[in-house]
Please model this.
Amino acid sequence: MTEDILINVTPFETRVALVEQGAVQELHIERSIQRGHVGNLYLGKVVRVLPGMQSAFVDIGLERAAFIHVADLRQNRSERSQGLPITPIEKLLFEGQPLMVQVVKDPLGSKGARLSTQISIAGRMLVLLPFDPHIGISQRIDSDAERSRLRELVSKFSDDSQTGGFIVRTQAEGATQEELEADRNYLRTLWVRIQEKLKTQPAPSLLYADLTLPQRVLRDMVTPSTSSILVDSRTTTQNLIEWARTYTPSVVDRIRHYSGERPLFDTANVDDEIARALSRRVDLKSGGYLIIDQTEALTTVDVNTGGYVGGRNFGDTIFKTNLEAAVAIARQLRLRNLGGIVIIDFIDMEDGEHRTAVLAELNKALARDRTRVTVSGFSQLGLVEMTRKRTRDSLAHQLCEPCPTCQARGTVRTPRTVCYEILREILRESRQFNPKEFMILASQAVVDLFLEEESDHLAILGDFIGKPISLQVESQYSQEQYDIVLL
Model:
């Protein structure tokens, strides 16, 4: 199954779309003033140690202090691997201490970045672990023979003059010894430069910034099934080709400049796909649909048959809808970059074989996801529980912000509810103050209701407090906003 990568470059934003069989599977967006921090190395300063939470806050120069947990300190990782008790964080860190850290999760919402002292630096085929002599092989390399071959080649990299270990990435499958050695030399040279900066830079300061989005695409997203990499910027195309000649020579021939009259993203309807990915509802071809809700704690996906009645019986209709939904859900998780806990409410199936088949279809579709996914299967309540590693903001968090009218609740109080709230407030204020008149400033919908269906209640209140009550429309007010002016 072939795929194409489209890279849209503007001075303010770079967008990348992974297109497979004409459908957008992944979207990545990097804005020049909002670049992500995952993978960056910093010399930070510990600003607060919290023994009760076994964590600490570290200033790395960002807007909010970053967060590190005791389990993310490399001293404790080695102790845990040996079955030894974890050393409390207050015995390892103190306020004012300089600390080299790596960002493993970008700031999300009100939370600061998540840090680790277990440093790793990714190359094209290898990941360098400067403080860990471990050698690991990507689980996505299935062949035992290939895994053994790669382990043997990488094991030769270790000698008395070098420390650290490596993780062999999926892209290394089939790589020659020369290619692996070139990647190793690049990573070790990079590590030497980082150590030199560490000796001269004050805390907090940036020691190493991860690659730009187009460079990360060449390093992480290109596979043998990638047929083309189209870039709509001539300068970026040339820069990528030069970078690829040094670090990923096998992909140079697939990088091409797009000079068509239509915008690059229009050729695959990417902008339309982005608009759909920001909607709660996802329509299925059969007539069914998904409802996707993202909350702070988890993401829920509800599957509905909608207008689909095509099966021979109701059980077949449900089964076919769930099968189609399984594929669509896997795609939406990648497209929207939804991470953390995901709860899927498939339509109830009485047949155990149907449940097994739907779960197998979901796992098959998720196998194409580059992000680590764990599926727990159906729970006792008939829900599928799964997790997807979260390292950066979802598409909705990148492109949207909470609604100022409803404060991200998704609903607003009805005009009638607001009317009654105003009546109660006027009654309350009439007992404390003695103005000549009360004036209500509110939205058009609320004022209209007071003039029509609620006019009797307004008049009764005016007679009860013995004061006139006037109305004034404020066109800039939301439905829930109002003011009561004492004249």
Remarks:
- The mean pLDDT is 89.
- The two ends are 73 Å apart (CA to CA).
- The longest helix spans residues 177-200.
